[in-house]
Amino acid sequence: MNITSVLVPTYIQMLDALSSWLKLAQKQLPEAEAQALLSARLAPDMFPLSTQIRFACVQALEPIYRLRHEPFPPLIMQMLEEGRHAGEKPGTLEEAYDRIDDTIGMLGLLPGNGLDLHAGEPLAHELPNGMIFDLYAEQYARDWSLPQFYFHVVTAYAILRNHHVQIGKKDYVAHMFPYLREGHQPPGHA
Fold first, then answer.
1. DSSP H helical segments within the chain, as ranges?
2. What DSSP string describes 36-90?
3. What single-letter DSSP state applies at residue 130?
4. How far is it, in rounded angstroms, from Cα 130 to Cα 150?
């Protein structure tokens, strides 16, 4: 397996799932309540749902540029800024869908080895707080990119569940159902 074949399908699957959870929230809740979810948090010191969505998108896009040794495009910096200020300006669900769709679109443009051009080479991953991690591309993908992405996706899931959106494990792993062996659905699931 190469880095691209691990990261890209994972990010696309889970961003699709995130979008579907938001759509379920819109179906289950009055429109004003569904929109208000974008300001919801799990804890007072955590970012709101709107930030979790934007940061999940950023984490999915960041490897496209970092692993190819390219500067980040303005879109990434824009999403980071929007996310940092989402407490005051959460945006709309339509904007959240647009961010997710744009991210999936950009991921879909990558060739099959698009993130593997510098595999095996060291990279310095510098955070805004001044911390620098010295990693190889594979370590960055496994130890930084995937965990950071899942942190924001799972936090978004937890915020939605915490605010009574009826989603469950089947919604979290919807991408697995094409692999389900015929005749092996749990009772009551067709």
1. 3-28, 31-36, 49-66, 74-84, 93-108, 137-139, 146-162, 169-172
2. HGGG--SSTTSPPHHHHHHHHHHHHHHHHHHTTT-PPPHHHHHHHHHHHTTTT--
3. S
4. 23
The pLDDT tens digits for 45-75 are 999 999 999 999 999 999 999 999 999 999 9
What is the C-alpha separation between 185 and 109, in angstroms, rounded? 34
Backbone angles phi, psi at 136, to 5 degrees: -100, 160
In this predicted structure, the answer to whether residue 185 has a pLDDT above a threshold of 70 is yes
| 37 φ/ψ angles, rounded to the nearest 5 degrees | -55, -30
Sequence spans of domains, the chain = 3-179
Fold of 3-179: Four Helix Bundle (Hemerythrin (Met), subunit A) (1.20.120)
pTM: 0.92
Alpha-carbon gap, residue 85 to 47, rounded angstroms = 9
pLDDT, mean of residues 83-98: 94
